[in-house]
Amino acid sequence: MIGTAFAAEGAEHAEAFYQDPTFWVGVAFVIFVALAGRTVWRALAKILDERSHKIEASLAEAERLRHEAEAALADYQKKQRQAVKDAQAIVEQAKLEAERMKVHGEEELRKQLALREKQAMDRIAQAEQRALADVRNTAVDVAIAATRAMLKDGIDAAKAKGLIDDAIVQLPKKMN
């Protein structure tokens, strides 16, 4: 009975739910949370969007830098290959030039040796001619001396022939 009496008493005191201050506090809380949550959500979404854009920009910059680095690497590799080719060409050119200089040097050496040999042969020929001239002059001097001696002494032919033979034998002694 108490329950029925309480229920009957409660029915008399029952107010409409919208008249209860707790209801309005709850409604105000829900509206506040909705408005505050919307504002917070917008701010949070804005911060996340900005962060997303920064990350996208960083990724795009990193991709651009990677492409630039790959292009620079390819360019440097190309330059390195060209430098190696140029160095090989320079080495080949130097070898050809060295071979050409060697052949030219050998040819010049042969020419110089031939010239010196010719000069030596010319000097030898001149020395032979001088020696022959000296021998002739000495022979003439000996013959003239023998002739004077023959004329002076009035030598007979046999004695003259002996003097000439003697002069010829003495000729090498007089040439030294």
Largest sheet properties:
none
Distance between the termini: 183 Å
Query: If helices are DSSP runs of H or I spanning 4 or more residues, what is the number of helices?
Result: 3
CA radius of gyration is: 68 Å
Overall 3D shape: rod-shaped
Could you name the ranges where pLDDT drops below 50 across 5 or more consecutive residues? none
Going by helix content, strand content and strand pairing, the class is mainly alpha
Task: Note the beta-strand portion.
Answer: under 5%
According to DSSP, the number of beta strands is: 0
Query: Which H/E pattern describes the elements?
Result: HHH
On the 0 to 100 scale, the average pLDDT is: 85
- Indicate how many domains the architecture comprises: 1
Helicity, as a percent range: over 70%
Overview of this protein structure:
- This protein is mostly helical and 176 residues long.
- It has one domain (22-175).
- The chain is built from three helices and no strands.
- The chain has helices spanning 2-13, 21-153, 157-175.
- The model has no long low-confidence stretch (mean pLDDT 85).
Map the helices and strands.
Elements: H1 2-13, H2 21-153, H3 157-175
Features of this protein?
176 residues; mainly alpha; 93% helix
